[in-house]
Amino acid sequence: MSDATAGPGVTVQPLIRPEYFAEPLTLDALRIPEGASGEMIDAGADALAYVLDGHGVLRVGAGRHDLAPGYAFQVHAGNTWSIANASALTLLVFGVPAPVTPWAARLAAPISEVVDVAMLGAQASNAATGDRQYEVLFDRSRGSRGATMFVGFIPTSGAPEHYHLYDEICVIVRGSGTLHAGGRSQALGVGSAFQVAPRFLHALENPNPEDLWVLGVFRPEGSAAAAYYPDGTPAPNNED
After folding, report:
1. Is 136 among the domain residues?
2. Based on C-alpha coordinates, what's the Rg of the chain?
3. Cβ contacts of residue 107 below 8 Å, gap of 6+?
4. Does residue 92 share a domain with residue 37?
5. Which residue range is the domain that position 207 belongs to?
6. Phi, psi of 198, deg, nearest 5
7. What Cα–Cα distance (Å) separates residue 204 from each residue in 19, 158, 238?
8. How many of the other CB atoms lie within 10 Å of CB of 69?
9. What is the DSSP track for 149-200?
10. Domains of the chain: total
11. Does the chain have fewer CB atoms within 10 Å around its N or its C terminus?
12. Mean pLDDT for each consecutive 10-residue tract of the chain (240 residues)?
């Protein structure tokens, strides 16, 4: 996220930096305290944002939208967006390269309708690897040009080791668990973020009775069910 003009007390915490990707996917946590406001614009990246906690009012173009936990919104590169009337608002803001460089242009999806705001629970859930479910917040059908944003719901035990063919950034938004990748295990809690490169084997384990919720953004835009087991076999419910 760049070119941000924030009010007093507003902080931007970088979580995933550009050096991890050929054309940078990024992730920042934007915290707006009670009564503060902020105005943002990024000429080079589309923004996909998710409200982790707090409330506020989003203004983008001529639109005005109330925000609460579980809401998400998108803003295409070059458009200004602002937050007002914040009540201790925390946003997770993903930056996806606008389709201006050759590789980003190749990844960009044709779009028609552009939806500004999505609310978790308002879309149908779908089946993914194992007995995991997911809900898509933004993809090409809702105006996202180069990425898909979804929330995955991982039950007790979680998904088996698998890989994808896309770049992905994930953040835990509810619950806790363990990431297994590269021969190591890392405990995860709310706000924990990690990035997964294409063909990198990984698994999320949930030892708790309640579901683990993981917010993900990946590109190229496509199906969150497109996963493969270590031997290359498509996982069940792989839609591609």
Report:
1. yes
2. 17
3. 99, 146, 219, 220, 221
4. yes
5. 117-219
6. -55, 140
7. 24, 6, 18
8. 15
9. EEEEEE-TT-PPSBB-SSEEEEEEEES-EEEEETTEEEEE-TT-EEEE-TT-
10. 2
11. C
12. 60 83 81 84 89 94 92 93 88 84 63 87 71 87 91 85 91 96 94 92 93 93 87 73
Cis omega before residue 110 (within 30°)? no
Whether residue 11 is found in the same domain as residue 95:
yes
Indicate which CATH number applies to the domain containing 186.
Answer: 2.60.120.10
DSSP code string of 34-71: TT--EEE--SSEEEEEEEEEEEEEEEETTEEEEE-TTE
Q: Count the helix, strand and coil residues of the chain and give each as a percent rounded to the nearest 5.
A: 5, 50, 45
Find tokens 């930096």 and name the residue: 17
Q: Vertex 204, ends 148 and 156: CA angle to 5°?
A: 110
Residues with Cβ within 8 Å of 122's Cβ and at least 6 positions away in sequence, in order, are none
Residue 148 carries which side chain, given as an amino acid letter? T
